[in-house]
């Protein structure tokens, strides 16, 4: 595979892997706006970026449907109602580096910024599947299986990237799964799936297949490596010698869990009062973030942060992220001293009262996925 025809990228990205390209924005840049500018939106590729001619492009729909379809880009844009939603995408590998620091895991290292928030324009997957006369669940129509056009994924013997979601999610009128051709009001760019990608909000980024080639309605999950082997939380006794035994027994990840992180200040900063903590909070399944707690003493005592922006537009669920802010004006233990070291912590709560686990050791897993433990930042406060 050749990486000679990759698109232009923001020089400010933190590059975690060059080819295939995997990059995240700097944490302070990430929380500068509710909508992430497209050039700052994290990129997670498994192969070279395909260069697709939009006029020759077609989307195929087959499997358990009464009317298999081949649709042009123009068909997608004109035959189906256009909807725009705000949704964040988050890689299941977000915060993997921190999990690996506790005990080594395998996978591309990610800091705290392999998630971003955008507006997406496209048609509903539901409308396309209704047009294709999708069979009932009783006939075995259980999974919507997606294949991309990015041939050359080394993990899967050079096959393109693929994965699947349930038909229940795909057909849920409040599920808001889109076939998106616009991102932040513009034609979606090459890194993010031009000319058409799935946006499956509320579930791990891995299911939002880019450069969408084909949708098959199937009784079974995708056969792809990325559905059957990867993106699973194995229990902590699973290692590289016995993992094969657990591949089929361990469910593939769908909905995201609850997550938050402090993006400003950076770890080990030295700061004067007053200063402001800024971060993000998200949950899976479109569950609203009800509350973010901030601690200045490593989690002994907590206070509520101020929440910013929950613009859910036409959706009934909260697919977008929530930013939070907390300003520290006084610190009693600083009195009479030149400086003091403190441990900042955040943890979010969603409308089901889910909250984040304290320790990474309790959720450690072989692939380093879904690290959502309390996020801590050590800083020094100067007088
Ligand atoms: N789709 C294809 N075709 N190829 C890929 O490598 N990566 C997936 C998903 N869809 C991927 C893909 C993963 S793991 C994530 S987290 C998201 O795309 C990232 O989307 P983004 O690059 O637009 O941020
Ligand atoms: Mo991902």
From TrEMBL:
Its cofactor is Mo-molybdopterin. The keyword Metal-binding applies. Residues 46-225 form the Oxidoreductase molybdopterin-binding domain. Gene3D superfamilies: 2.60.40.650, Oxidoreductase, molybdopterin-binding domain. GO terms for molecular function: heme binding; molybdenum ion binding; molybdopterin cofactor binding; sulfite oxidase activity. GO terms for biological process: sulfur compound metabolic process. Coiled coil: none annotated. Residues 252-380 form the Moybdenum cofactor oxidoreductase dimerisation domain. One of its GO terms (cellular component) is mitochondrion. Signal peptide: none annotated. Keywords: Metal-binding, Molybdenum, Oxidoreductase. This is Sulfite oxidase. It comes from Dictyostelium purpureum (Slime mold).
């Amino acid at each position: 595979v050749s990486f000679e025809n990759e698109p232009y990228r923001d020089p400010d990205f933190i590059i975690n892997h060059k080819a295939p390209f995997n990059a995240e924005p700097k944490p302070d840049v990430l929380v500068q706006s509710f909508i992430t500018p497209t050039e700052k939106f994290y990129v997670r590729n498994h192969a070279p970026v395909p260069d697709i001619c939009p006029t020759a492009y077609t989307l195929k729909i087959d499997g358990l449907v009464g009317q298999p379809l081949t649709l042009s880009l123009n068909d997608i844009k004109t035959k189906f109602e256009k909807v725009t939603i705000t949704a964040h995408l988050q890689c299941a590998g977000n915060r993997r580096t921190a999990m690996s620091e506790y005990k080594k895991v395998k996978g591309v290292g990610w800091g705290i910024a392999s998630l971003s928030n955008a507006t997406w324009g496209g048609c509903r997957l539901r409308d396309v599947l209704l047009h294709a006369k999708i069979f009932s669940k009783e006939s075995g129509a259980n999974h919507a299986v997606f294949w991309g056009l990015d041939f050359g994924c080394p993990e899967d013997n050079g096959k393109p990237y693929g994965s699947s979601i349930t038909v229940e999610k795909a057909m849920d009128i409040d599920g808001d799964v889109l076939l998106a051709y616009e991102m932040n009001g513009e034609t979606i760019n090459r890194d993010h799936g031009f000319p058409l990608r799935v946006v499956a909000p509320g579930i791990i980024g891995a299911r939002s297949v880019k450069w969408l080639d084909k949708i098959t309605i199937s009784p079974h999950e995708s056969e792809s490596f990325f559905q059957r082997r990867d993106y699973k939380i194995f229990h902590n006794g699973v290692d590289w010698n016995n993992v094969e035994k657990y591949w089929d027994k361990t469910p593939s990840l769908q909905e995201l869990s609850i997550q938050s992180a402090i993006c400003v200040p950076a770890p080990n900063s030295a700061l004067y009062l007053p200063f402001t903590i800024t971060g993000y909070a998200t949950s899976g399944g479109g569950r609203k973030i009800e509350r973010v707690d901030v601690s200045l003493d490593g989690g002994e005592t907590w206070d509520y942060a101020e929440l910013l922006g929950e613009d859910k537009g036409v959706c009934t669920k909260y697919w977008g992220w929530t930013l939070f802010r907390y300003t520290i004006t006084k610190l009693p233990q600083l009195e009479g001293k030149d400086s003091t070291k403190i441990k900042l912590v955040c943890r979010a709560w969603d409308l089901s009262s889910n909250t984040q686990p304290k320790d990474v050791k309790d959720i450690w897993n072989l692939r380093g996925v879904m690290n959502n433990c309390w996020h801590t930042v050590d800083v020094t406060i100067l007088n």
